């Protein structure tokens, strides 16, 4: 581990220690407490510069739970292996295995029964990678047909192993980045998009959606509010793809945070939620929350809404589970103790906001909606 990476991981530990002493409204709820330890262990043993290629999958307590990790090989929930993990490459890609499969392939036309002797996982790797790339190209083509300006921008290679990069029209794309473009298309369609200059996102994952907004309009300014370790990765990622980020190291030195003044020199502010009280008055044009309220306790999400909606002057975009995340059997077990439902959100907002557009998606499990301030 180089000195720079060592210092970064020490800063993350400091952030985590500070978070443990905060009001429970502004720290990890029951759902994230279940993940927290495993994610920190994964961070400790892996190279940060490869964080978008780490192994794992949602439900197992790792970085893929908030948008990092190897997108090409996402393990099923709670599974500790993937059939095509890199650990198996020494066998799958060996010359002996390739020659063996090639030999069986030549025999099959004459003796079909020999197909049962193939080492199939080796062949499946090729097919799976082609399907993955085809799905990306199809999603790219769809987005381009809806709004060609969106595909003027692309993802970054930072954090991704070279062998997992997919190029379309000479640019790098991932499924997660294309999903971000799809979200922006929805926001563009149902808002006066050109009026949106200042954005606040609660629960931004690694900062991928933020990066897309910033690439589309260099005048955009972005505030990310999130708990560690997630906020650490948002800050780390956006800094490493070239944005000026006012992060944790700068924030702990400030008694008050003057957003207007900071935005004169920085593109992004990454703020731990317990620092919200330090913010001076500032109005944002758009508030975003994607798959984050559903993972919080109801009292946490409604508190965030009550605090942040005072700083909003135009739009809110939400995408979450209609009934919130899975309910935990008991405290410290997987799930949310008291989920936040769509009904809870609408009741919180209905006095000052109107619904511009609402869609029910993902087999009637999830909603996405645009709210506009009255």
Q: Explain this structure to me?
A:
The chain is an alpha/beta fold and 374 residues long. The chain has a single domain (1-81, 149-374), classed as Vaccinia Virus protein VP39 (Rossmann fold, 3-Layer(aba) Sandwich), CATH 3.40.50. The chain is built from twelve helices and ten strands. The strands form two sheets. The chain has an eight-stranded mixed β-sheet with strand order 5-6-4-3-7-8-10-9. α6 (175-189) packs across α7 (208-216). It is globular, with a radius of gyration of 22 Å.
Strand order of the largest sheet: 5-6-4-3-7-8-10-9
* Mean pLDDT level: 93
- Continuous helix count: 12
Shape category:
globular
Number of strands: 10
Largest sheet: 8 strands, mixed
CATH class designation: Alpha Beta
The CATH H-level superfamily is: Vaccinia Virus protein VP39
Low-confidence stretches: none
Please state the structural category. alpha/beta
N-to-C order of helices and strands: HHHHHEEHEHEHEHHEEHEHEE
Q: Helicity level, as a percent range?
A: 25-40%
How many separate domains? 1
Radius of gyration over C-alpha positions, nearest whole angstrom: 22 Å
What is the correct CATH architecture? 3-Layer(aba) Sandwich
What share of the residues does DSSP label as strand, in percent? 5-15%
CATH topology: Rossmann fold
Through-space gap between termini: 53 Å
Task: Give the topology.
Blueprint: H1 3-20, H2 30-45, H3 89-92, H4 95-107, H5 120-146, E1 167-168, E2 171-172, H6 175-189, E3 198-202, H7 208-216, E4 221-225, H8 230-240, E5 245-246, H9 248-251, H10 259-262, E6 268-271, E7 284-290, H11 298-308, E8 312-321, H12 342-349, E9 353-361, E10 366-373
Parallel strand pairs: 3-4, 3-7, 4-6, 5-6, 7-8
Antiparallel strand pairs: 1-2, 8-10, 9-10
